[in-house]
Amino acid sequence: MASNSTIRALYILGVVLVTCTNAFTSFAVAGIDEGQWSMVQKKGKQLMVNDRPFYVNGFNTYWLMALAVEKSTRGKVSEVFRLGSSMGLSVCRTWAFNDGGWMALQKSPSVYDEKVFMGLDFVLSEAKKYKIRLILSLVNNWRSFGGKGQYVNWGKTAGLNLTSKDEFFSHPVVRDYYRDHVKAVLERVNTVTNVTYKDDPTVFAWELMNEPQCPSDPSGDTLQGWIQEMTSYVKMIDPLHLVGIGVEGFYGPSTPERLQFNPNPSTGQLGTDFVRNHRAFGVDFASVHIYPDSW
Ligand SMILES: *[C@@H]1O[C@H](CO)[C@@H](O)[C@H](O)[C@H]1NC(C)=O
Ligand SMILES: *[C@@H]1O[C@H](CO)[C@@H](O)[C@H](O)[C@H]1NC(C)=O
């Protein structure tokens, strides 16, 4: 079922966040006042909540929505948040997508399974209960949970002449599908809390995509255009929440002198470009994915 890249996507061990234009990472435990559940904001190079510094101490758990759908497995979601909270963790990264396949959130473009969306509602309400904030990723680069390939297949089904999964980033109709998904998630009214996702301080940040790569254009221009367009779109609907991209963190053509620090030469040819990508207007922080067994 799973390719190597799928396995990597599922078993990320660490996601390092650094606010953009900044060069430090902090692992201090967050101090959140009870009863003051406000949005995390960026002031200059500092993350802030209620005028106090906010420090990310995070973990990655992609499967929360899937297990929140059925009552019989929901307890695992609560248990993860309870454990994380007891360790002083403040941010959890998880999927706000599942496209086309088994227990899909989005069954076809803009067609949602309400029962699965209610699972995601539960994830947000439960995270708040344990004072954990969420990075919600909006689509996968990889095949698991649908991914860009599913979007391109939807386009083909609709009669578009698409030949590459990378046309996820370039074809206007497929970009529309993605924008519609962004809008559906951000404007979702939580059936447990009645809070619209775009107004919910439980969301730490939106993440455009899990590990975007566009190897058909190693110059990076195609992915850069997509990042800029989609960041602007998210900010238009929701100007307050932070936005991240979700890249693994490989250096690209804009920084030739740093290519030597990539895990291997081919990672500089994937159409991603760590420094340039994070300079896109509106991107609030940088991410790096760390796989201790691989790189
Ligand atoms: C589909 O697109 C490919 C590549 O862009 C092109 O070569 C081909 O002629 C197109 N096919 C049709 C039926 O338009
Ligand atoms: C949500 O809204 C509905 C309808 O307005 C209301 O009946 C319900 O009590 C509200 N629930 C919460 C948790 O605020």
UniProtKB/TrEMBL annotation:
The UniProt record lists the Glycoside hydrolase family domain at 39-295
Q: Which Pfam families does the annotation name?
A: GH5_mannosidase
> So which domain of life are we looking at?
Eukaryota
Q: What is this protein called?
A: mannan endo-1,4-beta-mannosidase
Q: Which stretch is the leader sequence? A: 1-23
Question: Native species of this protein?
Answer: Zostera marina (Eelgrass)
**Catalytic reactions on record:** Random hydrolysis of (1->4)-beta-D-mannosidic linkages in mannans, galactomannans and glucomannans
List, alphabetically, the InterPro entries matched.
GH, Glyco_hydro_5, MAN-like
Q: Which residues cross the membrane?
A: none
**Top-level EC class as recorded in UniProt:** hydrolase
- Enzyme nomenclature, EC number: 3.2.1.78
Q: Name the Gene Ontology biological process terms.
A: polysaccharide catabolic process
Mind listing the UniProt keywords for this protein, alphabetically?
Glycosidase, Hydrolase, Signal
Gene Ontology molecular function, alphabetical? mannan endo-1,4-beta-mannosidase activity
User: Per the similarity annotation, which family is this?
Assistant: Belongs to the glycosyl hydrolase 5 (cellulase A) family.
